[in-house]
Amino acid sequence: MPKLKINGKDVEVPQGSTIIQAFKASGVEICHYCWHPGLSVAGVCRLCMVQIEGIPKLQIACNTEVKEGMVVNNTAQGVQETVKWGLDFHLINHPLDCPICDQAGECGLQDQYMQFGQYDPQMAEHKVKKHKVIDLGPTVVLDSERCILCSRCVRFMDEVSKTHELGIFNRGDRSEIGTVEGKPLANNYSLNTVDICPVGALTSKDFRFRQRVWYLKEADSICPGCSTGCNVKVSYNEEGLWRIKPRENKEVNGYWMCDVGRDSYKFVNLKGRLLGGRVGRRGSWQDVDVVDAARSAGLKLRETVEKFGPDSVALVLTGQFTNEEYKDLLGFFVSNLKSKNVFHWLNNPDKVNEFDGLLFRGDRNPNTKGLVGAMIAAGVSGKWESLQSGLAGKKIKLVLVAGPENQAVFPDLEEKVKFLGQAESLVWMTSGTSTVLDQVMAETWQIPLKTYIEKAGSFTTYQGKVQSFKLGTTIVAQALNLSEVAELLAGRDLNWNLRPGGVGGVKVNYSTAQRGAL
Amino acid sequence: MSLVKRPDAKAEWFLPGILAGLWFTLKKMLWNLFNQQKMQTLNYPEQKYEYGPRFKGNHVLTVKKDGSIRCTACMLCATNCPAQCIKITAAENPDPSVEKYPIAYEIDVLRCVFCGFCEEACPVDAIRMGPEWQTAALNGSKFTYDIQQLAYRPQLKGGVLSVLDDQERHQAGI
Q: Is residue A128 within 8 angstroms of chain B, CB to CB?
């Protein structure tokens, strides 16, 4: 563990670290573009210059290893001047179209110019014009003029996704990023290049021009897209969610996430959400307050148990909810109702063990492991066949379903809804609306649930790591989580102080509800 | 608690004050009657006051040489607006040299405080505060100005040309 001094501050870093890693570890700011903690060292931007005592010339921090007793600083006059005029070189051909650039607001060039630059440009030549708005593939748009050729995206494709689509073509100031022979940049990790691009050269088609980043707030969360459980930050404002970006966690996802996971903000937004309780059958729905819907479903549930015994009700769970919710709902169902009819609805049993080698897993539920664990802990292991025979033999009268939050990953949704609708009564708890329910003959209660960003809890990843997350924002004020539903089904009252709506839970989030669908 | 002792109202004789006021009014009326050209007031609405060119009146969205709207939907005006009365929806322009443009640009004039910050924030001279100041309308919805109203209302006679032209800037190597 060598020790070194950075700007007079003592820092200890592991053997083999570079100076820039020591800077990051100590929290001292250093200007850099091409270096990224998850990629190899390129040393092309020449901005992370530092002065090392005993070495006459300035060195780049990203490619210089730390030695015992090094004295490093980046505040000397010479370093500051070098960084400043290095920035001028980077900006020679940069178009400065910040007004129409999506990166504006979180751009490395803007930040570092304000921090280290602030010069009067010395360049009298015309800017070199390059290609703009190049369609690289289904997800990414390239603007060559904005590119500063840091090669982060090229290194990402070579080292992380190992698909080698991108390269730098031509020479000198005509160098451009591009794909070989116009081959599209189409892999499941392409949007990571947008994240690591320090300027606005690579922009995401999904997010392009939809919001300026300074209108967005960020909340830390866990991606619900698959059982890997990537750590993410979600950007939202009062109109809903806009994008998902990865958050660093070396044990789970490193610095990356997949493009499929980035779509998991769409089902959270108001379009397609169930906004309140619904009671009825065969498409004739009556809108009721969610608390009343859950209470009347609870009455029916307890009545059924009293009349026909605990085996006449069944609980079907998907792996889309948090450990705490499973515990509360199973606690109510197994301990209070004394029923053992708990079944695990696995959406894609033949793909569960698929893995693409990097992050994306075939099990598209965030918490399958947690559900299995909770069922074992509760001492239930329902076989799907017994549900089939129970429904066919009319032994099971009422089915409670904690349905899919992300309906897109449930290809068997329609088939399963029809199957479960054979019961006399169906309590359908989910966050989204579903037209399939309109064909169900059973008397149905629809109860809106919160999505992952609207509640706190924890998911268990495929490797058994329990990751907890906090509440980010509220999209549907009426929605409940399964723990609250369990309380209401049991006939107890909710702790109104903990609900966002206050007493009665009737407050509607007007800023989101009245703007309509996104 | 101390009380301010006012002079007794009965001790003041009010008639001279009233007569002085009446005399002032009569004097001004007679003067105005015989010197109508030098009168300080206007006979609005027959006569209207001409404000200076820097007057901050109703907003104008400028246009390019081809008549399309100059605004690039950068949202700096909406960000800078202290009354939060500007709402812009950006979209991708089919022309790649334009890239981003507003498909909706709305100003809620009833909320606007006419401070001119939008004009100051605009990097491309796309929004200006014009000389018009008479903004009557029949109902509230007419006070939300859209692109049609802001850029192409009849008073503007086909639109105000922006001083910044992209083609010229490209040729100048900027």
A: no
User: Distance between CA A7 and CA A509 in Å, rounded?
Assistant: 49
Q: Which residue of A has its CA nearest to B96?
A: A133
Same domain assignment for residues A411 and A284: yes
Structural domain for A254, as ranges: 123-268
Model pTM? 0.85
Strand B100-108 versus strand B86-92 pairing type: antiparallel
Domain ranges of chain B: 59-171
Query: Residue B157: which of B72, B73, B67, B70 has the closest Cα?
Result: B67
Does B97 touch chain A if contact means CB atoms closer than 8 Å? yes
Nearest CB among A99, A126, A127 relative to B123 is that of A99
Check whether the bond before B94 is cis (ω within 30° of 0). no
Instruction: Write the CB contacts of A204 (distance below 8 Å, at least 6 apart in sequence).
Output: A102, A139, A140, A141, A191, A194, A243
* Boundary (domain end) residue, out of A41, A69, A90: A90
Closest Cα to residue B129, out of B160, B87, B105, B102?
B160
* Six-digit token string for A17: 């670290």
Domain B59-171, classified CATH 3.30.70.3270, yes or no: yes
Beta-sheet pairing, A457-460 with A466-469: antiparallel
CATH number of the domain to which A239 belongs: 3.30.70.20
Q: What is the CA radius of gyration of chain B?
A: 26
Q: What is the Cα–Cα distance from A486 to A337, expressed in whole angstroms?
A: 11
- Which residues have CB under 8 Å from A231's CB, separation 6+? A220, A222, A223, A246, A247, A248, A249, A252, A253, A467
In whole angstroms, give the CA distance from residue A509 to residue A56.
63
Tokens 């729905």: give the residue.
Answer: A285
Last residue of a domain, one of A268, A294, A316: A268
**Is A98 within 8 Å of chain B by CB?**
yes
Please report the residues numbered 110 through 129 in chain B whose beta carbons come closer than 8 angstroms to any beta carbon of chain A.
123-124
Whether residue A391 lies inside any domain: the answer is: yes
Beta-carbon contacts of B147 under 8 Å, excluding residues fewer than 6 positions away, are: B61, B69, B102, B104, B105
For residue A278, give every residue at least 6 positions away whose Cβ sits within 8 Å of its Cβ, in sequence order, or none: A285, A286, A287, A288, A293, A444, A445, A446
Are A301 and A405 part of one and the same domain?
yes
> CB of B92 within 8 Å of any CB in chain A?
yes
* Closest residue of chain B to A102, computed from CA coordinates: B74
Which residues face A176 on adjacent strands?
A169
ipTM above 0.85, yes or no: no
Q: What is the residue-level pLDDT of chain A in tens, covering all 518 positions? A: 899 999 999 999 999 999 999 999 999 989 999 999 999 999 999 999 999 999 999 999 999 999 999 999 999 999 999 999 999 998 888 988 899 999 999 998 999 899 888 888 888 888 888 998 999 999 999 999 999 999 999 999 999 999 999 999 999 889 999 998 888 999 999 999 999 999 999 999 999 999 999 999 999 999 999 999 999 999 999 889 999 999 999 999 999 999 999 999 999 998 889 998 999 988 789 999 898 899 999 999 999 999 998 889 999 999 999 999 999 999 998 988 888 889 999 888 888 888 998 999 999 999 999 999 999 998 888 788 888 888 888 888 899 999 899 998 998 898 899 889 889 899 999 999 988 888 888 899 999 999 999 999 999 999 999 999 999 998 988 899 899 999 999 888 776 555 554 444 444 444 444 444 43
Q: How many CB atoms lie within 10 A of CB A68?
A: 9
